Every structure is written in C-alpha cells, then in structure tokens.
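Hypothesis: this fold can be encoded by more than one sequence.
Test: take the structure tokens below, design a sequence, compare later.
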C-alpha cells in the first residue's frame, strides 16, 4: 500500500480586554486529504476530512487569588470519499478554575467536553492487510464520539517540598472499538471498528517530592489508582 496525503490548518482570533476579563472569539480550520494505492488489490481510495471550530472564550479573575477560564463552541465535521459526503455538528466546551488558598495550598479544577471524528483509515471500507494473520477494514457507518473529562488537583507547596492529590474522571460516549472475526475465505482475521456504548475510568493520583535538594536535585514519587 502506498500512502499520500497532506494537512492544512489555520486559526483566526479576535480578543477584547475588559477590566476583569479577556473575551476572545475565534475560528479554527483543518483540512486533511489522504490517498491510498492498494497495490495487491489494484484499488485506489481518496478521502478528505474538514474540521471547523467556531468558538468563544473568556479568561478572568473572580478575586485576586481566584482565576477562571470558560470556552464553548460548535465543531463542524465533514468527510467525503468523492462519492458520499457526511456532515456532523458537535459541541466542544472547556472550563477551568484556579484558587490559591494561601501561600502553601492551591486548588485547580478542569473540565472538558470534546468530540472526536474517526480517522480517515477507520472510515475507509478497503481491506488493508497487516500481516499473515490479520487485516483491518474501516466502516463508513462510524459516528463521531464525545469525551467528558474532569479533574481536581489539591496541591501543597512549601519551600523545600510539595505534595498533590489529583482525582479525575474520564468517560467516552459511543467510543470506537475494533472487533475481529475470522474470514475462512481470506484465511485471516479481519478487524472492523464499531461504535460501542461507553467507556469510563476513575483515577486517583498522588505526588510527593522535594525541590532543589542540595541545591541541584529534584525528586518526585508518584502513585496511581485506576478503576
């Protein structure tokens, strides 16, 4: 298989500064093109993917020791293979809050809701041989999926050492998974991506460390619990 392609992206932003906040309005655009020549199957495919994001965001101060950021916008996805074109509209939103409680303690909270479009190879229906026992084949029926992520960081920082506790939550709505079936005519396993129900994960991380030990050494110990 011979792969050819290119990607072009750009962004335009307008910002306005107010007394306690800065407001921005922006437009992001990305264009992807992929051309694949399947020498074995004597087949050529071409696909284009357009990703447009129109958004607004605000960053500001609630108090001298509390800052925030909010952003939301519309994602416009478009995929075409030269014959069929599919378009999707999704929301993308982010939020953040930082609170410096005192000189030692601080809290940082973040949340993101982000849509993802399947890759061009996952959408291509052409069979792609991986090795002697495996092949993959995309699916034109794949849908974009959304991810929700939230985390909270509680941090203690002293002159010589620091410690953090970071609980987080991660959930995929209708994520893509690859299912394999054996094809007796071809003689190998064929993997095809499908949208499933959901995937979620809870995670708890902890860090403790010392800074500038002997004026030149930083040491950090990390622990992680996933469920």
């Amino acid at each position: 298989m011979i792969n050819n392609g290119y990607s072009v992206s750009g962004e335009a932003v307008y910002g306005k500064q107010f007394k306690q906040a800065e407001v921005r309005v922006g437009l992001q655009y990305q264009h992807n093109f992929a051309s694949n020549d399947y020498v074995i199957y004597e087949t050529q495919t071409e696909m284009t993917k357009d990703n447009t994001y129109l958004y607004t965001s605000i960053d500001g101060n609630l108090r001298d020791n509390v800052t925030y950021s909010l952003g939301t916008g519309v994602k416009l996805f478009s995929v075409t293979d030269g014959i069929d074109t599919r378009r999707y509209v999704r929301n993308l939103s982010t939020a953040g809050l930082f609170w410096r409680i005192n000189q030692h303690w601080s809290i940082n909270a973040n949340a993101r809701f982000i849509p993802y479009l399947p890759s061009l190879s996952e959408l291509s229906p052409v069979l792609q041989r991986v090795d002697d026992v495996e092949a993959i084949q995309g699916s034109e029926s794949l849908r974009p999926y959304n991810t929700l992520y939230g985390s909270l960081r509680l941090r203690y920082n002293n002159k010589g050492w620091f410690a953090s506790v970071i609980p987080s939550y991660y959930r995929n709505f209708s994520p893509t998974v690859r299912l394999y079936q054996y094809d007796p005519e071809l003689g190998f396993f064929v993997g095809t991506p499908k949208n499933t129900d959901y995937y979620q994960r809870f995670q708890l991380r902890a860090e403790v460390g010392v800074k500038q030990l002997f004026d030149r050494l930083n040491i950090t110990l990390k622990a992680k619990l996933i469920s």
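The first strand starts at residue 2 and ends at 17. The chain has a mean pLDDT of 88.
Hypothesis status: open.
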